[in-house]
Amino acid sequence: MNLHRDPLPIADAVDRIMANKKQGKTEKVAIEHCGGRSLAEDILATNPVPPFDKSPYDGFALRSQDTMGLTRKNPGTFHVTETVAAGHRASRPMEKGEAVRIMTGAEIPEGADCVAMFEICQTFEESGHSYMEIKRALEPNQNIIEKGSETEKGKRLVRAGALINPGVKALLATFGYSEVMVYQKPKVGVFATGTELLDVDEPLVPGKIRNSNAYMILAQIERAGAEGTYLGKLDDDFETCYHAVSGSLKDFDLVITTGGVSVGDYDLMPEIYEKLKAKVLFNKVAMRPGSVTTVAELDGQLLYGLSGNPSACYVGFELFAYPMIQSLIGNPAPFRPRIQAILGEDFKKPNPFSRFVRGKVSFKRGEVVVSPVGIDKSAVVTSLAAANAFIVLPGGTRGYEKGDTVEAILLEHEHGQKQLEEG
Amino acid sequence: MNLHRDPLPIADAVDRIMANKKQGKTEKVAIEHCGGRSLAEDILATNPVPPFDKSPYDGFALRSQDTMGLTRKNPGTFHVTETVAAGHRASRPMEKGEAVRIMTGAEIPEGADCVAMFEICQTFEESGHSYMEIKRALEPNQNIIEKGSETEKGKRLVRAGALINPGVKALLATFGYSEVMVYQKPKVGVFATGTELLDVDEPLVPGKIRNSNAYMILAQIERAGAEGTYLGKLDDDFETCYHAVSGSLKDFDLVITTGGVSVGDYDLMPEIYEKLKAKVLFNKVAMRPGSVTTVAELDGQLLYGLSGNPSACYVGFELFAYPMIQSLIGNPAPFRPRIQAILGEDFKKPNPFSRFVRGKVSFKRGEVVVSPVGIDKSAVVTSLAAANAFIVLPGGTRGYEKGDTVEAILLEHEHGQKQLEEG
After folding, report:
1. ipTM summary value
2. Which residues in chain A show pLDDT less than 50?
3. Which residue of A45, B75, B152, B276 is 20 to 30 Å from A391, comparing CA positions?
4. What residues make up the domain containing A79?
5. CA of A175, closest CA in chain B: separation in Å?
6. Which residues numbered 212-231 in B keep a CB inside 8 Å of some CB on A?
7. Residue A418 domain-assigned (yes or no)
8. Do B203 and B277 share a structural domain?
């Protein structure tokens, strides 16, 4: 076996993957079940908002011309003809000298063009009739939310490819989208390879470790917006692996294996890609961890051979599988946000290759700070729990110092803070 | 009805709510179903990591003393006695002059104390025996990942209250947590009140609007880590509302209503709290939007009366219900992250009250920038879709200018970017 592989720059590896991107499938789902999904249609305003002139306050609807010249010394009295609650309409157009008691959100009666808040009105009863008095003039349109003032009918409010968050859901409901077209979640099959792997419920035995990569990757798949299926762990036996992998291809958009991509005697994935006649897009990337990450393509379908080392596996997924999944769910911005940040601690290791260090982003006085979390070796699993970002340290350097500007790739948002005010 | 209510400072309102916080309930769930849940137990290293001395590379395990003095001009030859794949063990301790072919992740054979990578070794066969040759000396422990070097047995790796992300899942699997104790999702019941409300699948009719708050709040509840149940929309009728609300209390940790908390004729919630003998913690907060937000307490249970205005409802939930939910799922940092940011655009409106403006956080050259999105009125629903933060503008000011330092409360992380590299 040829042990030499030429490392490919990361950007080229991503390009080779994204050259295989294709339109994801779509489906209609009920508004109740669309949370967190990716829109496959633009959301349009199917009616103006508000759909009628409405009152922003509880008060009295008036004709502003009736209030001209009113002052503390020259108050005006109006006959209160009816009450309009939200969801109801006035029974008839208003006439000179009349007031309509109106509730927040209710439709402005025909003829009225302003609302006086309760707080500036006096009310009284006389001979079985209701009256209100006001001591100031109102302008036309004062305290009126005009029909269409927020949104005109037909306006595009959210573009396809956006994630359905609580605000988008409010829009769907407002505009009568009881069902909405979303992208189907891409189906991703996951195998863990390696005779050393035990199931999570098995006791440790000498020479073996528990399979953590499959559970981790399944959680990454879910976080990325896809649907993962665990297809089991495979011993390092060629026939077993070959049949398992080849038999799974038709059921999934992507197939991910962990382990078996290095140059060891039992690293079977290269041979499996060969027998499948899959085209290896790359089998070595100029990065740490995860340099052995391999991606192959067969009839437009991608097979990801991620490293068996937990951190390398994690990084390989986020760099190479995440953007493909995002692309399949129609996100026009499929890459993880990559921002500049201030390095919070020294990182003195020299970098022959670009390094993705597990880090934690925090914010201090308007600055973005990122610091490494835990030990940084490709086999290290414990640092992943605390990471919400990768620190990107380009290769060919002698290390970095606290205060240097670096790039960070954001993976998750911060979970919370102890005090209401900034800590 | 007394129209006057004294506005309470936001921090005091939050204090009154959090004085009612209590221990959430817990449950055991399988590792497959714990993603996104909140840990109710600390995660301990149940074994050292790695659990044995192991090889980080494919290569040959050697006794370092056998390699002393080896150079290009004075190479050493070793008898390759066997191959140890990951998951297997050497058949016997190594002796002087022997090498064991070893794969990444495999256990170091007894007697060996270093590994030579394939890349620096020559191999050959002679008389039916395998040999390897090496032209340099190795140090003791060179290329050995020592047992326990990453984590000692018994170490606490993740504290209760942490969210189970892909990294935490990897730890659960590594340490044999096939089941894990998590906090139960708090149960939150939601009513929308208002005769003006139509269902999402009903056509618009004059004076009415579709119910968007319930769908929005249910999505916020889900995002906050709780389980929401929509209990229906209620007309503005006292008996209907009273029986619906009082009948729901026993089934939920929190009950949220939208609408009906202002001082209008059909704002029934104050009267309902009174008849329930619930203690109103506050019914006016010094903030915009959402000043009418009301929270009442009955036998330790909280009833949230959120505004019927979409943006006010949204803000009220995030400020007052979110930290209570986080607290019920054991998060020791239950508040939304609140950070300093640079205002990206002018916001010239004077602020008598503290204002929570829907905004979008972005990152530019290591700085956090936050800009308002869309129109900012409490009734405005369309700006919520694009918001990933609130801009906190304290009251008593004449407005803010681009470049001012402001506070931002983070709601969501950014969705992505178009290019692999920073845009």
Report:
1. 0.93
2. 1, 423
3. B152
4. 59-134
5. 8
6. 212-220, 222-223, 230
7. no
8. yes
